[in-house]
Amino acid sequence: MKIIALLITLACLLFPQLSLASDVAADSPLNFTTHWVGFLAIAIFVIAYSLVIFEEKIHLRKSKPILIAAGLIWLVIGITYKHYGLSGLAEEAIRHNFLEYAELFFFLLVAMTYINAMIERDVFDCLRDWLVNKGFSYRQLFWMTGILAFFISPIADNLTTALIMCSVVLSVGKGNGKFVGISCINIVVASNAGGAFSPFGDITTLMVWQKEMVEFTEFFSLFIPSVVNFLIPALVMQLAIEKGKPKPTDESHVAKIKQGGLVIVGLFLVTIATAISFHNFLHLPPAIGMMLGLGFLKFYGFLLRKGQQKQTEENPTSVSVKKPYDIFDRIAQAEWDTLFFFYGVILAVGGLGFLGYLGLASNYMYGELGATSANVLVGVLSSIVDNIPVMFAVLTMQPEMPHVQWLLVTLTAGVGGSLLSVGSAAGIALMGQARGHYTFMTHLKWTPVIALGYAASIWLHMIINS
Predict the structure, then answer these.
(1) What is the pLDDT of residues 250-263, one digit of tens each?
(2) Which of 21, 94, 270, 287 has the fewest Cβ atoms within 10 Å of its own Cβ atom?
(3) Does residue 274 surpass a pLDDT of 60?
(4) In the Cβ-directed half-sphere of 71, how many Cα atoms lie within 13 Å?
């Protein structure tokens, strides 16, 4: 504590303008947008996010730098506010941000657990092998994987959907790198577009729904703009797909859904319905409904495990029942790096907002540029920085704008990430999964066509929903 006090005193001596902030009312946050405290926080965030952007190059998990950044930013805030006897304000602000993260965390944890349970039961492997063995041509598979990605992502989220469809493309496209590359671009665009018209399709739409900026049924008004966003690039890209058919998979290696797989799919749909009902009818956080759904899965996992133990006793040599089903294995396989990354982003951006930077950005973007231009810009920024911090910043700003504009920013933040391969979690994941076939430059080649779909979806939204 003596060291902290010494640092604060030294800072005040070196930077006497800090004392000007003490004139602010004790019940309102201090404004440090033109102060060294704010500049230090911005520098910490920029350095950390630069490491996040180059994750694939430096092989440093994105959660690590952003977790450190969030802690350091709030350390700076905590020290500064303690100096002015306003620690209560800082505590209230960080608790507010942490609560927002907690609701998001438990919602996503349940969704990821269900998806991992379905993967373990070979639900998606079965879908993949079914597509491969139906004898579709390369062009038909291009459309099938894109359409499935568009309609699965509203339920399973765009990242999971993209990974599933990419595994299909890699299976059928062996030896055809061009097909794999173009199909991966199509999957990224389709997954992001499909996720934009559902609160479960993307982290950004989930945040908008939980903040009650857009009601559950209102998301579906973005369906037609999302379809156009997917179709325009797909119609052009399909022309580059060569004719021919892939070889079918050996019948002996075709996956079959394990015991209980379809029941878990049904429980997942029930869980989603529960979360929607909790939010829409009872006005409770949807995460509470999701946790109830996790209880359903855990209870069914218990019954499944008991059934497998009985089979093992009856047939000890059976390979299919050697490893009993364990729900905690599915929880352990959740995307923990992603979940911790969200924590870092929400706390770090929340800290910058508490220092006054989000208000400054809001005044410029929504005051000077106007709501439409600002929301279009949000989508472009999402393709460079990632849509999660950008959307969280907008929600923290809470600019005064018509409801149609809240729908617009939901759309642009969701589909804007498709402009570049690094603009969405789906694109980044597929660069790793289809390494060598789907790259930044492969995607960049088709960016003008994707941008055309982006512009068309915005134009159509303003016509339909105004």
Answers:
(1) 655 667 888 888 99
(2) 270
(3) yes
(4) 8
Looking at residue 250, its pLDDT comes to 60
pTM, whole model, 2 decimals?
0.74
pLDDT band of residue 16 (cuts 50, 70, 90) is very low
Q: Which two tokens stand for residue 458?
A: 């915005």
**Closest among 324, 321, 285 to 110, alpha carbons compared:** 285
> What whole-number distance in Å separates Cα of residue 88 and Cα of residue 369?
35
pLDDT band for position 361 (50/70/90)?
Answer: confident
